[in-house]
Amino acid sequence: MNMIKIALILIKELLFIKFEGIKATFHKKPPRNWESGKSGNAILIPGFLGSWYYLRKTGNFLNNLGYKIHIVTSIERNIYPISYGVNEIKKYILKHNLSKLIIVAHSKGGIISRLLLQDTEMEKRVKEVINLSVPNIGTLWGVLRIFNVHELTPWSKQIKEVNKNQNGIKKIINIYPEADPYVIPNKSLYLEGARNIQVNIVGHVNILNSPITLEKISKLLND
To answer: Which residue from 46, 60, 134, 140 puts its CA 20 to 30 A from 214's CA?
Structure first.
């Protein structure tokens, strides 16, 4: 893919993030119907600067499949240290005694989901993790050093830590696009040991709204 096309995708996604952020300020709470579901429980973990609102199409889709959707509000925007996100989700899972859990995580959220699986107690409670566009071995965008994003550099302590431990990795379905301007280098999108699925999508947040992604998730959950 040439640099002009990558730059255009980058600009488009920056605008999307900006406008979604504005819309999210008017939607403080997720839909009430997310509070019920008979198929099981699902937790949504947003990426850096994201919120449940960015993942609403995925949440609505899973809820329509019968899943109760859980949001850990204390990590909204996901600008906090990775360790904070891991601990907050652990506390939520234990407080609500969740088991046979489906986790859907985007970007930085996928690093959090991987660390959760490396905890023996959490791994027992999680049935499956679906990670979307995750910088598994880091991204050079971490050099910006804003809101703890430096934890996502390939040489950070957090990225080195998550890649030392393979516990629970076979429970991860790692879905990633053909090209992603936010995960540099793109080889970081692949996760050794997980079930990797590349989809015909270009972009970091485009994967959240694509019918291709939702169709993949539906087939995976029905396998």
So the answer is: 140
